[in-house]
Design goal:
Radius of gyration: 22 Å
Structural class: alpha/beta
Oligomer: single chain
Number of strands: 37
CATH architecture of the largest domain: 3 Solenoid
Distance between the termini: 70 Å
CATH topology of the largest domain: UDP N-Acetylglucosamine Acyltransferase, domain 1
Strand order of the largest sheet: 7-10-13-16-21-24-27-30-33-36-37
Number of helices: 5
Strand content: 25-35%
Length: 344
């Protein structure tokens, strides 16, 4: 897609550096990890310092940056020079919120519109299935799906186009795996779970909740077990990621863009909101939750029914409880103080 195509969708796009007409754009990527031939959105100055923080690269000459016009006008010379040196082109836009909705739609259509959701890929000889795999008669296997050695797929499973399943993985009845999702080796996914559903992402514009079209998928590494009736949403502009050895209980919600490390435990009815980051070996009690944008260090423990606040930075190997969550000792002392008051 050319820059001129995007400008027909949102006429407020204006080039302020470089020449985007030299680039053929394949999508939108996340500011934490800009990808070649894509562009990122920046709606606040606070995000400028974090551009590329999860990327091995420090400059992105084949990527573009779209920044809200009122923010671009406030940039200091050194701030603008820094992003100018990092990107192939920069444009401003009247509203990033509106642009996320309108400009993500054509890329979504390019990726998903022509997928075959009706005819089993086996009938079209458009699948790669190892002969050792065991697949129930009532399972649906989409076009271009890849299934590894000794995989077991039970009745009612739906695997949509371009998904892949690693060796020795077991998928129990009535699981749905959306397009482009990748499941590792030796995983167990229990009944009624959905992987790759649209993230709950909307921007409120002119009195309406308008959809941000999610362009990415879900990546699940090896040795992950997922309980029944759990939902894992696809990422908007970066894949939702579940690290090796993580164990997820029944009825857990993992939202778009979430990054979960290795050997994390999420007990029943816990939930991670959008763009949450969870490092290795964290543990969440039943009904625990994390609000959007929070980052939890390695080995953090969250007590049942506790809620980590939005955009919190939680230090490694700490324990938290309460709503809003506080360090465990502080929370327990406050509960003890309340009990004493109630006895008076």
């Amino acid at each position: 897609m050319q820059f001129s195509d995007l400008k027909t969708i949102d006429s407020s796009l204006a080039v302020i550096y470089g020449d985007p007409t030299k680039f053929l754009m394949s999508g939108i990527s996340h500011s934490d990890a800009p990808l070649p031939n894509t562009f990122i959105f920046v709606k606040s100055r606070k995000f400028l310092s974090e551009i590329g923080r999860r990327s091995i690269d420090s400059v992105f000459p084949e990527s573009g940056l779209v920044i809200e016009k009122k923010i671009a006008n406030l940039l200091k010379d050194d701030e603008f020079k820094n992003i100018q040196n990092s990107f192939g082109w920069i444009a401003s836009i009247d509203s990033v919120a509106s642009g996320m909705c309108s400009l993500s739609k054509p890329f979504y259509d390019l990726r998903f519109k022509d997928l075959n959701y009706q005819v089993d890929g086996r009938q079209l000889s458009e699948v790669e299935i190892d002969p050792s795999a065991q697949i129930a008669q009532t399972a649906f296997i989409g076009s271009h799906v890849k299934i590894g050695k000794n995989v077991k797929i039970m009745p009612g499973v739906v695997i949509l186009p371009h998904a892949s399943i690693g060796d020795d993985t077991i998928i129990f009845p009535n699981v749905t795996i959306y397009p482009f999702c990748r499941i590792g080796n030796n995983c167990r996914i229990h009944s009624g779970t959905n992987i790759g559903t649209d993230g709950f992402g909307y921007n409120f514009i002119e009195g309406e909740h308008k959809k941000i079209w999610h362009l990415c998928s879900v990546v699940i590494e090896d040795d992950v077990e997922i309980g029944s009736s759990t939902n894992i949403d696809c990422g908007a502009f970066i894949d939702t990621y579940i690290g090796q050895g993580t164990k997820i209980d029944n009825c857990v919600q993992i939202s778009h863009n979430v990054q979960v490390g290795k050997h994390v435990v999420l007990c029943g009815n816990s939930g991670l909101a959008g763009s949450v980051e969870v490092d290795d070996f964290c543990v969440f009690g039943g009904h625990a939750g994390v609000a959007p944008g929070a980052r939890l260090g390695k080995g953090v423990q969250v007590a049942p029914l506790s809620i980590i606040s939005e955009n919190s930075i939680v230090a490694p190997f700490t324990k938290w409880g309460g709503h809003p969550a506080r360090p465990m000792n502080e929370w327990l002392k406050s509960k003890a103080a309340v009990r004493k008051l109630l006895k008076k």
